Amino acid sequence: MSNTFNPVPLVLFGVPFHNVTFDEAIQWAVDRVRSGKPGVIATANLDFLVLAQNDPQLREVLYEADLVIADGFPPVKLAPFYGPPLKGRVTGSDITPMLAERAAREGISVYGLGAAEGVAAKAMEVLKKRHPELNVAGAWSPPYAPLDQMNHAEILRRLDEAKPDILFTAFGAPKQDKFNHLHVKTWKVPVAIGIGGTLDFIAGVQTRAPVWVQKIHCEWLWRWGTDPKRLTKRYVTNIGFLIRAVWLTLKLRLGKNIPATVDPSAPPHWPAHGVTYHEFQDLETVPGDLSGNVVMDLRNVEWLSSLEIGVLLELSKRVRKVVLLHAGSKVRKLFEFSKLTDRLPLAETCAEALRL
Ligand code: UDP
């Protein structure tokens, strides 16, 4: 089986999500191990959407992640209002044991990194017991410390020695994802995936919600109930964000047409030196050979779908800079809410686009 999913992400509230099923994500990991090219997977849930709002570094980590899976119902439920629906929820807690099972069949090695002292080793022991043929390259729970105070050299030394194919990084979000991002360009680990509290679940030091609670989308309520001291602030903030996101969705996607703010008199003196000008109509019209600085004129589009934003995001990785000109007020509102403007800045006039 090879991958069939569209590698262009759906961008929801500024976070890119790859539209994959469990099987496709697992196959992606196996293919990546076979290719040997280091890559990272982020398991993004509502908490990520909220954290990314206030953390430019995390936004960058998510833009650059090779695979971002939708670990939560809010992105899955809201996706159809913004473009193609997501195929479903792909949770880090479920994909981790599934990856271990596939790894055991394929001769792929795994390493558990993080969680409280001894928990990573216990989790790897449990996985080995379930799949005796699993190649466990190692496990280590380094002492808790902020990212910039961790002993990175020691972790890298251990990983270099163990040479795992798949690294389960469990420092909690966003630390684990920043950690993977920091090292993916220099280490030789083909797949590193941030898995939050999953090692705790596998080792049995935390109990996951019963399946019926998961099925009615209330796993978060269960976690809240089991650890209210730590999680109350997080969940209250997340619920506040969700209410604002739903409100924005109602305003932008169900409301009356908000007129675009295009200034038709703006004289497009293109091409300017070192800048490619492109008039954006829809996905199909974006040429693949743009380079340098690109100005995308949105005067003819009223709205950008999550997939179209995904295309622009991918384009922004290939060229020096993408500036969006003449965005209508709906697009502007969405971009400002999602903080997408630091990666895809908006300009109202040609002069401003050139300055950016
Ligand atoms: N953790 C860690 N180092 C830290 C902070 C947390 O190893 O500095 C571990 C913690 O023991 C737990 C995991 O990270 O096993 C996930 O933490 P949390 O429940 O906050 O993550 P979530 O799944 O909620 O993102």
Give your account of this protein's structure.
The protein is α/β, with parallel strands linked by helices and 356 residues long. The protein contains 15 helices and 12 strands. The protein has helices spanning 22-35, 46-53, 56-64, 73-82, 92-106, 119-130, 152-162, 175-183, 198-203, 211-215, 219-226, 228-254, 306-318, 329-338, 350-355, and strands spanning 10-12, 15-17, 39-44, 67-70, 109-114, 135-140, 166-170, 191-194, 275-279, 293-297, 321-325, 346-347. The chain has a 6-stranded parallel beta sheet, with helices on both faces. Helix 13 links the parallel strand 10 (293-297) and strand 11. Helix 1 (22-35) crosses helix 5 (92-106). The protein is globular. It starts with 9 loop residues before the first strand and ends with a helix. The mean pLDDT is 90. The protein binds uridine-5'-diphosphate.
> In this structure, how is the largest beta sheet organized?
6 strands, parallel
Q: What is the number of beta strands?
A: 12
Question: Which parts are unreliable, with pLDDT below 50 for 5 consecutive residues or more?
Answer: none
Query: Percent helix among the residues?
Result: 40-55%
* Integer average pLDDT: 90
